[in-house]
Design goal:
The complex is a heterodimer of chains A (332) and B (308).
Chain A (H helix, E strand, L loop, with lengths): L3 E14 L2 E14 L3 E5 L6 H8 L8 E10 L2 E2 L5 H7 L4 E4 L13 H13 L3 H14 L16 H13 L5 E5 L7 H18 L2 E6 L2 H7 L2 E6 L2 E7 H6 L4 H8 L48 E3 L5 E3 L2 H4 L11
Parallel strand pairs in A: 3-8, 3-9, 6-7, 7-8
Antiparallel strand pairs in A: 1-2, 1-4, 4-5, 9-10, 10-12, 11-12
Chain B lengths: L1 H28 L4 H6 L5 H11 L5 H13 L13 H36 L4 H15 L2 H15 L12 H29 L3 H8 L4 H31 L1 H6 L5 H10 L3 H29 L1 H6 L2
Helix pairs in contact in B: 1-13, 5-6, 5-8, 5-10, 6-8, 7-8, 8-10, 9-10, 10-13, 12-13
Classes of the chains: A alpha/beta (332), B mainly alpha (308).
């Protein structure tokens, strides 16, 4: 018994295809306390969604394969239970909001039925009571309950995402994984949906993993932040740690790519180059080719975790020799 | 929805006019004279001329067509040149046989193909999938007259389980129905498999799984309904083709259906009978299409919304 709701250790996931093997997740550790929100940040292809799917044990197989590590969710080792037991956890202990609300709802089933389905499975209610509950869930996310019998195509994108949130929360899960829940929505709707999620998270005392590449969203919602790059967590810490005492050059690069509202003339500084080929990750640090601070050792040895506090660590050689090294953005 | 159905039925009228017009003229362009054919080789010039006059064959084609259509509206499709029976009566006798054969064939195909298609898709690249797809390929490739003959050799000559031809009770229906079913089973299986494969990769399937819905129910409830639209399209097409195109199978099994009737009539240049058969084909094809469109609307609310 520990006080972590989710405890991922050394998770490794690969996709084996005819063209080669993609190492999507290469040994990551995530610990998440009850009621906390973790932001999982990284660019496309960093392994964020694969990590999320692993927690639900829904990595498509083939081609995906979990080759190592453990995930303990609510004190259950999910790699050691039957499919039936896993089905009982999905939607009930952990549920997920997918990226694109346009495609995440079944077009031929009414939204009410889609919400009621999970309720009927996990709470063993009959159709009538489940429908009632589905209506309440719709009201909760700000959609009139009488629209229960409408089909997804009759809703706008923002409303669809609300329906998806209603589905995900219908059985009051302990962990909600939101995979870029606002990426496909326009900015005003984004704010509404985020606000709603924050509010419901507090109401239901859920833990949440928020996958995003939007640091603004992270600042808004998260307690802790993990920065993912090429299947590894390169830096993890509290919101303050990451935003105020950034350690990893990649994290710094992410911040430099955000427009500065106080100095609109400042030029954006994108991270140069592309992410390393996932079929063929380099030896040493995967970020070495794009890093402004690269040293010879970076191309030879994978960096180890270096801790700055109990909660804040990074995987970077810069700090192996000089723990007080300061990145450019802190050197004013 | 009812308005839509009504509109669709009304739209069948110009289709029928177009079909009859085309066929009427094409038949008139073919060489050979109906009057001399009816009277046979021994007829005199005189009597042939008299019959042509009597049948109105000397009038311009457009006038003949007008006369034909007027009669059609009265439900009169004329009389057969070769047998002297009314076309309506003859078709009325033959069409139910073809319909019986076709509907049995299509039901057999659906029962076999949909489950195989689903299992092949959900267990892609498994042994089951490979075997299923090989059978589908073989099924598509075998011409029906050949399949028919093989089935006759195997099941009526060797095993003596079923009669080799004729229409005599349920037993005689088995072999021709299976012959027809084999080819359509194959194409329906392939369509079901490919549309299923596409659907199971959709995001909403993940949403359903993430809710804790069990694998079987995900397939049955969430995937199948979405995958059915392409399958239904193919089923409808196959059904339409079978209704008119069971000619070879009907011939192999001496099945007294409308396909055979038409081929015989074409050989005898029996214009009213050919026209009658084609009208029935066109009509049944249109009706099958209408039923398919209604089924689409039943399955997919997005299509239903467009039908208003």
């Amino acid at each position: 018994m520990n006080d972590y709701l989710l405890d991922i250790e050394n998770l490794q996931v690969q996709y084996v295809t005819d063209d080669g093997t993609v190492s999507a997740v290469n040994g990551i550790d995530i610990k998440l306390q009850k009621g906390k929100t973790l932001g999982l940040v990284g660019e496309t292809g960093a392994g964020k969604t694969t990590t999320a799917m692993s927690i639900l044990r829904l990595v498509p197989h083939p081609p995906g394969k979990i080759i190592g590590g453990t995930i303990r969710l609510d004190d259950t080792d999910i790699f050691n239970i039957s499919e039936k037991e896993m089905e009982r956890m999905r939607g009930n202990i952990v549920s997920m909001i997918f990226q694109d609300p346009m495609t995440a709802l079944n077009p031929v089933i009414t939204v009410g039925d889609q919400i009621a389905e999970a309720i009927m499975i996990h709470q063993k209610l009959n159709q009538e009571k489940a429908n009632k509950k589905a209506e309440e869930m719709l009201e909760l996310v700000g959609i009139p309950g009488n629209r229960r019998n409408d089909y997804p195509h009759q809703f706008s994108g923002g409303m669809k995402q609300r329906v998806i949130i209603a589905i995900a929360l219908s059985c009051s899960p302990k962990l909600l994984i939101a995979d870029e829940p606002t990426t496909a929505l326009d900015v005003t709707i984004q704010a509404q949906v985020l606000e709603l999620m924050k509010e419901l998270k507090t109401k239901y005392e859920m833990s949440m993993i928020l996958i995003t590449h939007d640091l603004g969203v992270v600042a808004e919602v998260c307690d802790d932040v993990a920065i993912m790059y090429a299947g590894r967590i390169v830096e993890k810490g509290s919101l303050q740690d990451i935003f105020l005492t950034t350690k990893h050059p990649y994290t710094e690069g992410l911040f430099n790519s955000i427009p500065n509202i106080d100095n609109r003339k400042a030029e954006l500084k994108p991270i140069k180059g592309l992410m390393s080929d996932p079929y063929n990750l380099p030896t040493g640090c995967s970020f070495a080719d794009r890093c402004d601070y690269v040293m010879p050792i970076c191309r030879e040895k994978s960096p180890q975790k270096i801790f700055f506090s109990e909660n804040h660590y990074t995987e970077c050689h810069l700090y192996a020799t000089d723990i007080d090294f300061k990145l450019g953005r802190h050197q004013e | 929805m009812y308005k839509y159905i009504f509109r669709r039925i009304a739209m069948m009228i110009p289709v029928m006019i177009g079909v009859t017009f085309l066929v009427f003229f094409i038949i008139n362009l073919t060489p050979g004279d109906a009057a001399s054919m009816i009277l046979g080789d021994g007829a005199t010039e005189e009597s042939i001329r008299a019959l042509r006059e009597e049948m109105g064959l000397n009038d311009p084609v457009i006038v003949q067509y007008g006369r034909y259509m007027t009669n059609l509206l009265k439900g009169d499709l004329g009389t057969s040149y070769s047998t002297g029976k009314t076309v309506v009566g003859e078709i009325g006798q033959r069409f139910p046989n073809t319909f019986k054969l076709t509907i049995s064939a299509i039901i057999i195909s659906i029962i076999i193909s949909i489950p195989i298609g689903i299992i092949s898709a959900t267990k892609q690249y498994s042994i089951f999938d490979s075997v299923g797809m090989i059978f589908a390929l073989v099924g598509v490739s075998m011409p029906s007259f050949w399949t028919g003959l093989i089935l006759i050799i195997a099941f009526s000559l060797n095993f003596r389980w079923f009669p080799s031809g004729g229409m005599d009770g349920l037993k005689s229906l088995v072999l021709p129905a299976f012959t027809l079913a084999i080819a359509s089973t194959a194409s329906i299986t392939r369509t079901t498999r490919s549309s299923m494969l596409e659907v199971v990769r959709q995001d909403y399937i993940n949403t359903a799984k993430a809710k804790g819905v069990s694998k079987n129910i995900v397939i049955r409830k969430h995937a199948l309904k979405n995958a059915l639209i392409p399958a239904i399209t193919v089923i409808g097409l196959e059904f339409g083709i079978l209704l008119g195109g069971a000619v070879l199978t009907e011939t192999v099994f001496s099945w007294p259906g409308i396909g055979r009737l038409m081929v015989e009539s074409i050989q005898r240049k029996d214009t009213p009978m050919v026209l009658g058969c084609i009208i029935v084909f066109a009509l049944s094809f249109s009706i099958v299409n209408l039923i398919i469109d209604i089924l689409y609307a039943y399955i997919d609310p997005r299509i239903r919304a467009n039908y208003r």
